[in-house]
């Protein structure tokens, strides 16, 4: 019964997240200006424009809760592939687009969501929870403050990854937890 309730809760969160994601609209207003409208943003979310090498071309911390709208002249970018990245509290939304001969085309079929893992330290017990969709792999690495790798694991084909690691008897200090898939990585520093 406990697992049924837990799985139901995860599904409710996923559907609510996908509904808010579906409301994100990117439209071309004319040849030079693209109006980007994002619904249900929260203060502190970060909107970035990146090239396909991950180079940040534009970055803004959103200062409002609710709807966000801004006009961009994306035609000024050199021909190539780019991505709008909206980094929210629990997820990162990726909206790819192409610039070709001053024309901007959004690739709606390849829009994606990366759900951030939850990393909690409770007295040296490190709990990591991550919902894994579409059989994406998840690489987990934990580094000590001097850069030494103290733990590494690769998780595949799990729908929900929920594990507790006991660091209560480990050397005191700062640890860096890195979780990654083929598209991005998430880092969190914890203190033991």
From TrEMBL:
Residues 1-22 form the signal peptide. Keywords: Signal. It comes from the Bacteria. This is T9SS C-terminal target domain-containing protein. It comes from Aureibaculum algae.
């Amino acid at each position: 019964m406990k697992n049924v309730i837990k799985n139901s809760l995860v599904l409710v969160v996923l559907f609510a997240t996908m509904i808010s994601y579906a409301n994100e609209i990117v439209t071309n207003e004319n040849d030079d200006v693209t109006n980007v409208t994002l619904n249900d943003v929260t203060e502190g979310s970060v909107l970035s424009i990146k090239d396909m090498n991950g180079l940040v071309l534009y970055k803004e911390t959103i200062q409002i809760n609710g709807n966000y709208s801004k006009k961009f002249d994306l035609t000024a970018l050199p021909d190539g592939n780019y991505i709008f990245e909206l980094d929210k509290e629990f997820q990162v939304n990726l909206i790819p687009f192409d610039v070709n001969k001053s024309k901007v085309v959004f690739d709606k079929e390849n829009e994606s969501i990366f759900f951030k893992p939850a990393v909690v330290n409770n007295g040296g017990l490190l709990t990591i929870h991550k919902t894994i969709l579409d059989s994406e792999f998840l690489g987990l690495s934990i580094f000590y403050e001097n850069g030494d790798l103290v733990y590494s694991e690769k998780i595949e084909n799990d729908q929900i990854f929920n594990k507790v690691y006991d660091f209560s008897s480990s050397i005191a200090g700062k640890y860096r937890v890195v979780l990654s898939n083929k598209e991005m990585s998430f880092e969190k520093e914890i203190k033991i």
